[in-house]
Amino acid sequence: MPSFTSLDLQVLLPQIVLVAWACALLLVVVFNKDLEPGTVPFLTLLGLLATGVFVLFQIGLEAEGFGGMLVVDGFSTFIDLLLILGGLLTVALSYGYLQRMNLARGEYYALLLFSISGMMLMASAGDLILVFLALELLSIPLYVLAAFARPEARSEEAGMKYFLLGAFASSFLLYGVALVYGATGSTSFTAIVAAVAGGLAHPLYLVLGAGLILVGLGFKVAAVPFHMWTPDVYQGAPTSVTAFMALGAKTAGFAALLRTFLVILPSISEQITPVLLWVTIATLIAGNLLAIAQNNVKRMLAYSSISHAGFILMAVVAYGSDAARFDVVASSLFYLLAFAFASFGSWAVVMALEQREGRGLEFSDYAGLGRKHRGLAIAMAVFMLSFTGVPPTLGFAGKFFLFRSVLEGGFVGLAIVGMLASLISAYYYLRLVVVMFMQDGEPQVVRETWLNLTAMASAVATVLLFVFSEPLFGWAAQAVIKLF
Amino acid sequence: MDFIFEPLNLVTFFPLLGVLALLFLKGRHDLARWVALGTSLITFGISLRVLSLFDSSNPALQMVINRDWIQVAGWNIKYALGIDGLSVLLVLLTTFLAPISILSTWHAVEDRVRDFMLFFLLLEVGMVGVFLAQDLFLFYIFWEFTLVPMYFLIGIWGGDRRMYAAIKFFLYTMAGSILMLLAILWLGINQGTFYLPDLVAQGGIPGDVQYWLFLAFAAAFAIKVPMWPLHSWLPDAHVQAPTAGSVILAGVLLKMGTYGFLRFNLPLFPQATVQLAPAIATLAVIGIIYGAIVSYSQKDVKKLVAYSSISHLGFVMLGLFALNAQGVEGAILQMVNHGISTGALFLIVGFIYERRHTRELEEFGGLWQVMPIYAAVTLIVSLSSMGLPGLNGFVGEFTILLGAWGAGQAGGALGSVWYTAIAAIGVILAAVYILYMFQAMFLGPLTKKANEKLKDLTWRELAVIVPLLALIFWIGLYPKPFFDLMHPTVEQFLTIFQSPTLALH
After folding, report:
1. Is residue B157 part of a domain?
2. How far apart are CA A29 and CA A109, in angstroms?
3. Contact A419/B178, CB-based, under 8 Å?
4. For chain B, N or C: smaller number of CB within 10 Å?
5. How far apart are CA A30 and CA A35, in angstroms?
6. What is the DSSP string of A72-103?
7. Smallest CA–CA separation between A192 and chain B, in Å?
8. Does the pLDDT value for residue A2 go beyond 70?
9. pLDDT for B259 beyond 90
10. Number of domains in chain B
11. pLDDT score at B505
């Protein structure tokens, strides 16, 4: 029976704080029926900040706890902080929105915290079993949150769909884990690496297992052909949940993907890379082409989110190349960061225009925004340009850094496909800008401080942080994954 | 602080001050106009200061700012600006045309003036940056950024089909730039730096790779120029853009393409340049003839002027790829000339459009009788555009033809004088379409009733056009100061093509 050391505690502390806080929050909500509407969101913010402080203490730490189950390194700290930033922004977006949509129920925030703790665990998992558990911990609250607008049919549908397909994907992942276990005799990363290095791993089972793990995680990051749920769930879920999901689930999925592939699967990159390559190309092309046809902004952003998964996957494809290896992690993380700002900002604008019962979400509802609400429209234009990758935005820097990994890995053809995908994406992003600025209309906009603040701050960050890409990229480059 | 007050930083980013002011400024339209005009005039002043600091006898880059920017994880990206004989005239042209364009919008833009001025000043930042950037990453930022404000200028304040034109402009140009971006990345990864002077000095790019990189860069630049057959975005963008947008589009944005060839393709890929010079020159000559013929067949004055740009820039391309001093110097001067003459022509079209709200040639005729000053101004500009001796167009085109002739001799870059011979036909064709336009608008009897009450140019309009006329005469009669500015740089620049490994045909 392994004993419990202080290092274990240190490694797990942020999660403990977060989960304890979430439980406490749940109790607070149950026993105090008539809280001020702002109390629970405020407490949630505090909880996230407290967790963030404990994560900050982990900076520079590189350790493993619980016999290698849980790994803390630069990579996990980066992801944790990104997730906490995402959590904070989600709370800011949710506060007014939930009241307006009549959804303000306390358990929303507790579920949010539970989900974040699952995502953080994903980034730290040093054992395939933990990857699976973390995936469930992050997913189950998300299923509930997606259906939070119950009894609205579309939201219920979203929850149900997400749940069914999610369960399906989880079972793929689990099957993959089982096969890897069968191939190597263990689920712990350390033991798997040792088994592979010692030539003890069964090659066929290992490859099959890795493929199935890719399916499970590909579902979370919404890679084609595992993306079918995305548009419906994004559209049906309450928009604040969608905003959270767009960043959170993607970040967690990529965190697990990067760690699993870089740590335990470099030896079979020869077999896995072609699969990854085709998944990536399919994601890039399908995501962007389908986005063109959308007239609902939420759906368009859903497909856009698929296409961004494709862009990050481009870097992951190069994971097997020695030259590109560390760049892969750094550029993926930077891209996620760039995506985070533009994503939350654009969801904030969507929420400012959204009306009850899913109205106010069509492209045509944005007509005239540039004239009537200049600030919001300019912010949205900045996000669209950042998504497209036009300088001077973080999105451009993200793509630039990303494409280096791809070229370093020697995938020139893939880089050209990625460039073409960017070009296609320019069309639908610009279409929204055209509607906002070049058509006349009477957009219905809710004036709400937190939404405006999030949109403006994200827009300023998207442009201004571009100038300071160096420290940001430097930070991402230090976020290396601990190898065994 | 010293960093901010570096002359090249100031001239690039000063318009941002105006942008900031416009963002927070509320109130009457006039104020926005004055802020923008003031900002652009001060920027022009700063560029004159840069000119006074510029030592024209020194062929090297001057006033260089070279700071580390992104130096982590194997990146070697610098923030580098510099000016030399290749770019100094183009920077001046940009800062000179900006206040003129702004002044020309005084009554033409009444809707969302503040936003218009904001985008216009942003555009100026991008354009000046393109001509000054010495790091490929930085260059790409400015290059791609110019798309954004121009897209808004066309899309919001343009004509009836403005949205179509704006998106087409954006996508077309972006299609070229992304290929260049990949080539830039390739250079950065394999040569270890994005800093242009280092890349040029280092050389050593294998010949077959040079070929591909040349084509990737050329994709971006050729679309911008635009070279035949990649020109189809241009008529739409030009015709739909508001007058000030057309002036800047023709005057400066197109030059970014030709400048790009000169600044990047030639020195970075000399071997591929020599290899491909005849091909490019062929396209240039086709463009000269094609642009002229299509111009002649237009019924809309603005379209006529737009197509004439294709023809004029064909001359510039021919001069550049003559790869000798006369050709390149003529090309640079012709870039400036085209900016002045075609800019002026678009202004002239704008003047009449504001009065009559039509640009159909059929709607005019006999305007000389009602608007004599306007007619005289148009005549001068038209003659300059068709290359009459004594005016600026002649100097540029003639020098280019001389250069191309030289390059057509044995041992020259082109290897055949046919390029020059056919291009010379283009000069004649230019006279045909320009005079056709002038005749249709100004000569003959005054047939349309609506034209009888037209007012001649106002003082504001004269203030817009007279500086351009002055330059037309100055360059036409005494071009020496302009050549002096670029000559030492061009001489030194061309030495890369004299190395024995690059045996010309």
Report:
1. no
2. 10
3. yes
4. N
5. 10
6. ESHHHHHHHHHHHHHHHHHHHHHHHHHHHTT-
7. 30
8. no
9. yes
10. 1
11. 43
In chain B, residues with a C-beta closer than 8 Å to the C-beta of A469 are 70
The mean of the pLDDT values for chain A is 89
Residues 6+ positions from B296 with CB-CB distance below 8 Å: B304, B429, B432, B433, B436
pLDDT digits (tens, 9 = 90+) for B332-372: 999 999 999 999 999 998 888 888 888 888 888 788 888 88
The chain B residue lying nearest A374, using CA atoms, is B115
The alpha-carbon gap from B160 to the nearest alpha carbon of chain A, in Å, equals 11
The helix/strand count (H/E) of chain A reads as: 19, 2
Domain of residue B293 covers 270-505
Residue of chain B minimizing CA distance to A423: B175
Tally of CB atoms within 10 A around A483 = 12
Residue B344, domain member (yes or no): yes
Instruction: Quote the CA–CA distance of B261 and B61 in Å, as a whole number.
Output: 18
Does some domain include residue B132? no
**Among candidates A407, A423, A437 on the partner chain, residue whose Cβ is nearest the Cβ of B185:** A407
**CA–CA dist A161, B258 (Å, integer):** 55
- With tokens 């982590």, the residue in question is B72
Tokens of A190: 């350390």
In which residue are the tokens 């558990």 written? A133
A87 or A374, higher pLDDT:
A87
| CA atoms A326, A329, A332, A334: torsion sign | negative
Task: Say whether B188 and A326 touch across the interface (CB within 8 A).
Answer: no
Q: Is B353 exposed, middle or buried (0-12, 13-18, 19+ CB in 10 A)?
A: middle
pLDDT in tens, B167-197: 888 999 999 899 899 999 989 888 888 998 8
- How much is the pTM? 0.92
